[in-house]
């Protein structure tokens, strides 16, 4: 029982990593994803990696299975019209327009208000029901809960076939009693409905964000329950699911809080890349996970990916803790198309796994980024070590047809597709760094995923990066990341005050830690670790700054430490603070606790040193600035210290690294290829 397996389901491929903790052996593989039923691809990948490890498909020898997936939220990300057709909303009487009013903000500023069309709400107005009763901001009851209105609302939903219901009543973060009574009424009057309460999903103030977060949870619950149930039945054993906050949770618990798993695959990639970069001596880095459908970008500072509670799922704000990830529709399957104005565009629409790029021979008829790479010779005429043969002539015909429409040569057209994709990725990197006050030139880039390394050299040029790090088996870093994370649950309580009482704050933190201990106990952990934090702001500000809070008893000295950290962090973020100015009071807003069940992380193996010059395995015609016969290396043949000078191509099972002219790739002690520009 020393085997642990991580399975990351992507839009095009399902990536699998097996770690044998007894022998230290790591086995990686890929299998095509199965969008119609993702569980098929999951099971195929697990059996395939077990056979590669030792020939047996017996799951009894597996100690742990961890899954990263966005199955639950794909319908929201893709804005499918039927994605929320089953969804209803219950809120406090008089607040039925909370979703319509939202934050009264217009994308790109109010100058865009003449052109911007408000998108549909997650729940249309005709599926919103209100219930009488009112609490104040401290949780005191002003008007009693209206049982009759609640029953009428429940029956209204039942009669119209609304089977998923989100409940967000005013000030329920301070007192959940009215919401719990609403759940009791729904269980009695509409027992087949799944219900999400905002006091369970996000016990934090700000009604709009809490409402939408609760509704997203309710929307994905039925899908997640079906998927997890199907997978559990086929596996016949427990497994865990990656959460967006950088932890994992058992599948049995995930069905009760599915919103915590949004963007779980990208989160695993950021954590895996952080571990790889840290071992190689780079505690701070930018991570770029290039897949078939999209590219996910995050920033790691001092070994930890940045966290946020201001994330979004598609157009929906979700205030759950998650790794701060920016996603752009620029993957290998992103489709190149001609706008009505006659200009070349790339993405965000993707060919995905079915039908896939033209070169896959699966019926795809539109040119993709992968087709452009294949046409230019930068990708070999096969994938996965020859398991998937690519139709180079079909890719060439597709590129030539698109080039003719644009009046370009095929080479210029294909290069343009890759250039647009690189700039789309660079804009995502700027968003996660420059817009957060970070200098992108201070961070090396960890490029992984099946398509991540393909544009590494261009990104170094465009952004002025010091280096790009390509980990071993880059196509499986997200699956590897699944095996590096602890069990982690987050709890929050809003408590707004300018005169914090050590006794009250201590009681709130004790309650949150008790909740965390209970959850970790259900997960089988005897050892618990708690991480405290607090959200503070200067009185009069609209938004908060989160800082770490120390362990130990809450007293005046504890309050002073947290306030001091807030002053320092505010000054770092915004360039000013009011540490010694009594006119600007500090206001406490939220207290947070993360309960952590630690695991043993896999150790990264060192590569043997290679004193000799690496030998290429062949040559082929590759187009960089012009067509030329270019050497091709097999990555498995390279040892520590091996140097590859461009122009060249480095191939491996799950990905390819084109080394452009003027660039050099050197393998470090841990098997990472470190790419630098010869001009720096």
TrEMBL record:
Annotated organism of origin: Microbispora amethystogenes
Domain Hydantoinase/oxoprolinase N-terminal: residue ranges: 4-189
Acetophenone carboxylase-like C-terminal domain boundaries: 504-670
Record-annotated Hydantoinase A/oxoprolinase domain positions: 210-490
A Pfam family assignment: Hydant_A_N
Protein name: 5-oxoprolinase
């Amino acid at each position: 029982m020393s085997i642990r397996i991580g399975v990351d389901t992507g839009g095009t491929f399902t990536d699998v990593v097996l770690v044998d903790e007894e022998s230290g052996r790591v086995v990686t593989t890929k299998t095509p994803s199965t969008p119609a039923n993702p569980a098929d691809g999951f099971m195929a990948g697990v059996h395939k990696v077990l056979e590669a490890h030792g020939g047996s498909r017996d799951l009894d020898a597996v100690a742990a299975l961890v899954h990263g997936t966005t199955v639950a939220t794909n319908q929201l990300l893709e804005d499918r019209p039927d994605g929320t057709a089953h969804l209803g909303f219950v809120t406090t009487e008089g607040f039925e327009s909370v979703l319509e009013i939202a934050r009264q903000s217009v994308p790109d500023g109010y100058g865009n208000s003449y052109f911007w069309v408000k998108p549909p709400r997650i729940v249309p107005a005709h599926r919103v029901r209100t219930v009488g009763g009112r609490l104040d901001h401290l949780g005191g009851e002003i008007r009693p809960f209206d049982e009759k209105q609640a029953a009428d609302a429940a029956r209204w939903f039942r009669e119209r076939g609304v089977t998923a219901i989100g409940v967000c009543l005013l000030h329920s973060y301070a007192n959940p009693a009215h919401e719990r009574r609403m759940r009791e009424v729904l269980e009695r009057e509409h027992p087949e409905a799944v219900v999400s309460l905002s006091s369970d999903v996000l016990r934090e103030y700000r009604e709009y964000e809490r409402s939408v977060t609760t509704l997203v949870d309710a929307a994905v619950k039925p899908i997640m329950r079906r998927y997890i149930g199907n997978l559990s039945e086929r596996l016949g054993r427990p497994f865990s699911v990656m959460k967006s906050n950088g932890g994992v949770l058992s599948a049995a618990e995930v069905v009760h809080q599915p919103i915590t798993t949004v963007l779980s695959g990208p989160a695993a990639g950021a954590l895996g890349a952080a571990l790889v970069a840290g071992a190689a001596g780079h505690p701070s880095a930018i991570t770029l996970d290039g897949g078939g459908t999209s590219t996910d970008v995050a920033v790691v500072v001092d070994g930890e990916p940045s966290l946020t509670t201001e994330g979004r799922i598609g157009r929906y704000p979700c205030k759950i803790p998650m790794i701060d990830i920016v996603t752009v529709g620029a993957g290998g399957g992103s489709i190149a198309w001609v706008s009505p104005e006659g200009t070349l565009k790339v993405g965000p629409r993707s060919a995905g796994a079915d039908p896939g790029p033209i070169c896959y021979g699966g019926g795809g008829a539109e040119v993709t980024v992968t087709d452009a790479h294949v046409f230019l010779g930068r990708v070999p005429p096969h994938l996965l070590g020859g398991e998937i043969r690519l139709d180079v002539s079909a890719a060439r015909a597709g590129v030539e047809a698109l080039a003719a429409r644009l009046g370009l040569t095929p080479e210029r057209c294909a290069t343009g597709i890759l250039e647009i994709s690189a700039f789309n990725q660079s804009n995502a990197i700027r968003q996660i760094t420059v817009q957060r006050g970070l200098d992108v030139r201070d961070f090396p880039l960890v490029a992984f995923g099946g398509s991540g390394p393909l544009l590494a050299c261009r990104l170094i040029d465009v952004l002025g990066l010091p280096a790009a790090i390509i980990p071993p088996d880059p196509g499986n870093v997200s699956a590897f990341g699944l095996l590096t994370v602890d069990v982690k649950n987050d709890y929050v309580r809003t408590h707004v005050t300018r005169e914090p009482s050590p006794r009250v704050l201590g009681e709130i933190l004790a309650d949150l830690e008790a909740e965390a201990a209970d959850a970790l106990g259900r997960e089988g952990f005897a050892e618990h670790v708690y991480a405290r934090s607090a959200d503070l702001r200067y009185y009069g500000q609209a938004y908060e700054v989160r800082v770490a809070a120390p362990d130990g008893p809450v007293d005046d000295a504890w309050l002073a430490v947290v306030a001091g950290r807030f002053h320092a962090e505010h000054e770092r973020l915004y360039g000013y603070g009011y540490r010694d100015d009594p006119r600007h009071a500090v206001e406490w807003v939220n207290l947070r606790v993360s309960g952590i069940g630690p695991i043993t992380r896999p150790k990264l193996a060192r590569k043997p040193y290679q004193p000799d010059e690496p030998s290429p395995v062949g040559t082929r015609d590759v187009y960089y600035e012009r067509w030329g016969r270019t050497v091709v290396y097999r990555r498995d043949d390279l040892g520590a210290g091996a140097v590859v000078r461009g122009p060249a191509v480095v191939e491996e099972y799950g990905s390819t690294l084109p080394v452009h002219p003027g660039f050099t790739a050197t393998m470090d002690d841990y098997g990472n290829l470190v790419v630098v520009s010869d001009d720096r």
